[in-house]
Amino acid sequence: MIETKYLEVEYGFTNYQEIDELINAFIQENQQIEVLDIKFQSNKSAVADSGVSAEYLHTSALIIYKTPPQNQTAISSKGMGFLIECDKCGKVSTIKTNHIGQTTCYKCKGEEK
């Protein structure tokens, strides 16, 4: 399954972390994921009012990642085989019981049954 995680830098005196620290911490805490892409964004804005001015910086990242299948053999079809979601084409396919652990359908393997 493909999922996303949005991270943004919190600016403050006690809890400030760079965006790369947040990204690396998320990846370290979720070592089972496969990172597909990271989108980085940084915006700078300025405010002026009554002679007082300030600049604000907002930094964020979107991590796009793939999680491993939860349980590929959760559904049985009367002891004759199992349903899997093919890693290559994404379609649901039945495999023989003695091929348990297989993650690619027979069609994608070139062994159409």
The run of helices and strands is EHEEEEH
Structural class estimated from helices and strands: mainly beta
Uncertain segments:
72-77
Our Rg estimate from Cα atoms comes to 23 Å
Biggest sheet, strands in spatial order?
Answer: 1-3-2
**Binned strand content:** 35-45%
Total of domains? 2
Structure annotation, total helices: 2
Question: Strand count, sense and closure of the main sheet?
Answer: 3 strands, antiparallel
Helix content: 10-25%
Q: Which term fits the overall shape?
A: elongated
Number of strands: 5
Distance between the termini: 26 Å
Average predicted confidence as pLDDT: 83
Protein name: Sporulation protein Cse60
Q: How would you sum up this structure, described in words?
A:
The protein folds into two domains: 2-66, no CATH class; 70-113, no CATH class. Helices cover 13% and strands 42% of the residues. The chain contains two helices and five strands; from the N terminus they run E-H-E-E-E-E-H. The strands form two sheets. The chain has a three-stranded antiparallel beta sheet with strand order 1-3-2, covered by helices on one side. It is elongated and about 75 Å long. The two termini are 26 Å apart. This is Sporulation protein Cse60.
